[in-house]
Amino acid sequence: AAREKGVDLALVTGSGPGGRIVEKDVLAFLESRPKATPLAAKTAAAAGVDLSTVAGSGIGGRIMRADVEAAIPAAAPPPAAETPAVESVPLTGLRRIIAGRMAASHSQTARVTLVTEADATALVEARQKLKAAVSEEWGFAPGYNDLLGLIVARALREFPYMNARLGEDGATIERLPFVNLGMAVDTERGLLVPVIRDADRKGLRAFGTEFRALVERARLGKSQPDDLTGGTFTITNLGMYDVDAFTPIINLPEAAILGVGRIQPKAVVREGEIVVRQMWTLSLVFDHRLVDGAPAARFLQRIKRLIENPYLLLG
User: Catalytic site residues?
Assistant: First the structure.
């Protein structure tokens, strides 16, 4: 009878001699066991649910599958993922100095940004010819920073109101008789701005030679005090990182800074025809307390003209 009814004899208490299980014990066990549908019983066995603890919702209190499923303990939620620890880096040394200067510039200047695109096709071609002609003799290949540095230095000489700074008294504008061009450099210690003094009086070879020496000392942590002070205007170039336009922070007490983007081929219209030209994005950020918008725009326009007509540098 036990085999026919699917009864586990280990669960039955025997009443026969010596505790032997007899038929009436099996029948009594079946009578006492909660009545469940076969599917409910199968589900309970698979889930390890004791049917005696389940209240049936079927006719006559019969246990249905849904009753068993409702009695299955909910799975414990997975343990919460550990939150990565926050890395705290002390704001010290050069990073602290940079932070202070950036905050001061941001709060103390009336910044305005002008953005333009210059057709650098002629400049790109001129650089290629220069590389082939002078690299071996000079010991370096002239780069766009060298060429643009000369162009900006020339423009600053022509537009002295851009080569200026706010006086220490805060009530005067000092127009400077010298052009000391700062060239922002990314180093392992942070942003540094080596200064090329009298940049407007230097030729391309002298400019490039001095620039490379300054950059090397800056990256090796061997800059001299005069290497990083006394600038009158700054250039910062992010073109090598595929950046087009951006708004750099003015290097106080200077009046302006030029942000340089990448040179990239673009389809443009020239004399009614669509042609591909090498276009260069420039962003001029200036302090409106020292310079008005129209004069700043004329300065940027002059830089653009010199880029598009590099032979004018020979004049």
Answer: 288
